[in-house]
Specification:
single chain, 394 residues, Aminopeptidase, 8-stranded mixed beta sheet, 13 helices, DUF2817 domain-containing protein
Length: 394
């Protein structure tokens, strides 16, 4: 189950690639969708759509201000909304923006799902909680990482024990890769990575790029040295909206890997566990249990959001899934991660090349295709209904 060109193996490459709307998703034109108004084109418009939908449907919202400003100096927030009763035993938790810029697609899906649930209602003793832009800085600045250069979805590790080691990233750093990130253009870093791949192979390359690491703050996939602002936010939302739920079905919305527009369910639970079996029973295909297919995932995945939810709700049973929507080629994904690291190392957000990289990230993770965005909205609604049906059966 090896994803083409990279060896990360997350998504079945044989899945059909549906046609786009004729522009391959790269167009400045904004069009309307079944989810409502015109597409959000920046953080402020995405937040306005989410808050507007909640206000229209009389859904209460709690807002949490981030300590850093957006690119225009504006205040930025994560917002949380709940449909259904406070204190419900069962909760569907839908999160966007774990990886910053990927949150635009997640926001679009949340707006559509809120409308669906408000119209259709929820099962008894069940609530639905939405965290909009868990990493609002990354969304506002069109970056995947947080304001302190942390990959949030690698940061929820147990910090009371030794942190995981990424030997391949260490080897990459040993080649002088971090110095290449400080070069005037990203070309040196891209060439250094290409040389590393030729010398060490696809699996080592995938591990260096995608696994995450905890030793090099300027490197790829840095998981941080301490809990971040978003960790505290998650704990606040747990106290404000999730407790005392005993069952929580998590849907963590992501984009970037897999066939265009296809929403693949990714399970990172322990192989053979009751949780893995239950998630398989709840959900349809495409479903990938990463840890059951070691050939398809040549690295350890640790510190993801599922671990974070378990940390803030230790008494609850957590049934987590990531819903990953494919965009473009995986090699392009890796290239953009390297360019993003280069942009971070430059320390100059006004640099025209840095701005061009931010635009590329936005287009890659949030294709400007009406077809793609409708597929995201419809698939998210379908998966949420499966989760609610599963919760109702417990």
């Amino acid at each position: 189950m090896r994803y083409r060109g990279v060896g990360v193996g997350l998504i079945e490459a044989r899945l059909p690639r549906p046609p786009t709307d004729g522009n391959q998703g790269i167009s400045a034109k904004m069009t309307a969708t079944t989810a409502g108004d015109a597409f959000a084109h920046d953080y402020s418009s995405a937040r306005a759509r989410f808050l507007g939908q909640c206000e229209r449907l009389h859904i209460p919202v709690s807002s949490y201000r981030h300590p850093q400003p957006g690119p225009g100096g504006e205040a930025i927030y994560s917002d949380a909304a709940r449909i259904g009763p406070a204190g419900a035993a069962r909760t569907l938790l839908v999160v966007s923006g774990n990886h910053g810029v990927e949150g635009y697609a997640g926001s679009h899906a949340q707006v559509a799902l809120i409308d669906e649930l408000a119209r259709e209602g929820l099962p008894a003793d069940t609530s639905a909680v939405f965290i909009h832009m868990l990493n609002p800085w990354g969304a506002a600045w069109r970056r995947r990482h947080t304001h302190d250069n942390v990959d949030l979805n690698r940061s929820f590790v147990d910090r009371t024990i030794p942190l995981p080691v990424n030997a391949e990233h260490d080897a990459l750093v040993g080649t002088g890769f971090l110095d290449c990130l400080r070069a005037p253009t990203p070309g040196r870093a891209l060439e250094a990575m290409a040389q590393f791949r030729r010398a060490h192979g696809d699996d080592a390359y995938a591990q260096a790029v995608f696994q995450g690491q905890y030793d090099s703050a300027g490197g790829l996939g840095y998981g941080g040295s301490a809990a971040s602002w978003s960790h505290g936010l998650l704990r606040q939302v747990a106290g404000d909206m999730l407790e005392p739920a005993s069952l929580v079905a998590l849907i963590d919305l992501h984009t970037g890997l897999g066939p265009f527009g296809i929403g693949t369910l990714i399970c990172t639970e322990t192989p053979g566990s009751a949780e893995t079996a239950m998630l398989r029973a709840w959900y349809d295909e495409p479903f990938v249990a990463l840890l059951e297919d070691r050939k398809g995932l040549p690295y350890e995945l640790q510190g993801d959001l599922a671990q974070g939810v378990r940390q803030v709700l230790p008494a609850a049973r957590i049934l987590p899934i990531s819903l990953e929507f494919g965009t473009y080629e995986a090699d392009r994904f890796a290239e953009l991660m390297i360019k993003d690291a280069w942009a971070e190392a430059q320390g100059n957000p006004d640099d025209p090349e840095v701005e061009a990289i931010r635009c590329d990230l936005m287009h890659f993770f949030y294709p400007q295709s009406a077809l793609w965005r409708d597929m995201v909205a419809q698939r998210t609604k379908s998966v949420a209904m499966m989760a609610l049906a599963g919760l109702a059966g417990l």
